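Handout, section B. The chain below has 283 residues.
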Amino acid sequence: MKDIGIIPNWHKRNSTLVVDKISRFFKQRNLSLRIADKQIADFYSEVSLADQLNSWQDNLQLIIVVGGDGTILRVARDLACWNVPVLGINLGQKGFLAEIEVEQMERFLQYIATGQYDFQERMMMETRLQRGDKELGNYLALNDLVISRGPFSRIIKIETYVNEDYMESYSGDGVIVSTPTGSTGYSLSAGGPIVNPSMELFVVTPICPHSLYNRSLIINSDDIMKLKVDSRQVQVVLTVDGQVRFALEDGDQVIVSRSMQKISMVCFHDYSFYRMLHQKLKA
């Protein structure tokens, strides 16, 4: 049997206590662990986790991530290429990606130890940034991409195309393109719909649009979107999963498509997206 990898965000409060508890649980059951300490897994480093943990790749059956949604997003982007299932234990505020809350941890760890778990594949998004004839970046995302204005309160305009067909020109604070997984993130706060993460589609949601309507649009995951920036001397920023940032210029184009890469998230026999949704969003 391969090892279980534990990747904590050591910057989170109580991460050490939680990791110690997980470690004792599996060691008592003679299950082999690999724990990423502070020296070999730094979430604030620009170096990919795949490079920081390259010796792990062929020796894992499961990755347990200890942190919040941001921690899980970083692991998903950096380690999706390993095709190893990911399980999140939430140390954040209101995590939609983490399957387990700390208070319920021992029961679910028992499921892991006895093999009583399954996987749910989730689509990921590929974002390519083009400036003229040059491609400046290619990014993988699990949640979303956001094109938004900088620190000054000025309206920006973003022209959007689907499969080269003109769709809409959004004027306002920006646009969010999210996956189903990301529909419970920034897109939800901007008034977008909640989508079951097992589906495959894109949600396009304007941010504070300067218009008489505010509607999200659902795009087929097989479609290719192009978003063209009309900044007119206004600072505009591209953000991927809330973590990767790039300053955009007038005329820059952001190409969005479904990635061939997917991420497998661990789920359990009693998992229900709708029950979880009620628990997370109830007053």
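Note. The longest helix spans residues 15-27. Compare this with the example in section A.
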